[in-house]
Amino acid sequence: MGTPDFAVPVLHALHHEGHHLALVVTQPDRPKGRGKKPASPAVKVAALRLGLPVIQPESIKDPGLVDAFAELKPDVMVVVAYGQILPKAILDIPGLCAVNIHASLLPKYRGPAPIQWAVINGEKETGVCTMKMAPGLDTGDILMCKITQIDGNETSSLLHDRLSEMGAEVLIQTLEKLASGNIKPMPQDSTKATYAPMLKKEDGRVLWSKSARELHNFIRGISPWPGAFTFHGANRLKIVAAEPFAGSPSEPFGTIIQSFPDELKISTGDGILSIIEIQGPSGKRLAIRDFLRGYRLSPGDRLE
Fold it and tell me: For a designed S-S bond to 251, which of 165, 169, 170, 267 qualifies (C-beta 3.0 to 4.6 A apart)?
């Protein structure tokens, strides 16, 4: 069971290792893009290319699915970013267990956006865990975890791709240990749990009162979606990349400060943020030098 790009490496790994995939379950096709034409989930596309059977129930709580899944007599149910909460009646079907892959070092960052929030919060490391699924949200006993360092300039998009491949590796190792009985589930310490809520489009607005370091992490964490944005008057500017710059500005936060003509430096609540790449009203992502050739920003202007 899986839906987005993050789940595709797991599907490929299962197929490559020769596991018998009785069924692939994914979300229904949804309207996408400006034309709002129905688009298939990444997992469906990958599964059909592999010649695997696919179903797309509108609700996983459809009573008929319990009987349909039970008839397959699965040893294991693998769930990766499926997008619906599974009822206990379905979790109880596999002979061994239902295994979920989560992109954090549980119990930290339970919830739908663990990768983004780890970067936003400036974490130095993260990882992937497999767990024995329970009815709660990411509360099941941990089976295996693997740790990786987060580079100081890594975006959530790049980290997403690394963790998706890592998740596939950890899952295969988990299945081997489950088959041999050589694994001991470890209960999570819920007193150390944190939550990573889904990000909304409006969450991308830059709060210049934060420090330059916090904003650097924020911009990395919400790249590419929802993307960091600010306003210069009525114009919406999307900040694609930036970095902290040494200095203690006297200007109010959000103010463009004096710098070289091909630079854009903004005062923050603590320090200076230097904009590296930006997208303006034209809709094109540009290096700041190229952007400033066609868009006027002057020292003393405020971004909000």
Answer: 267
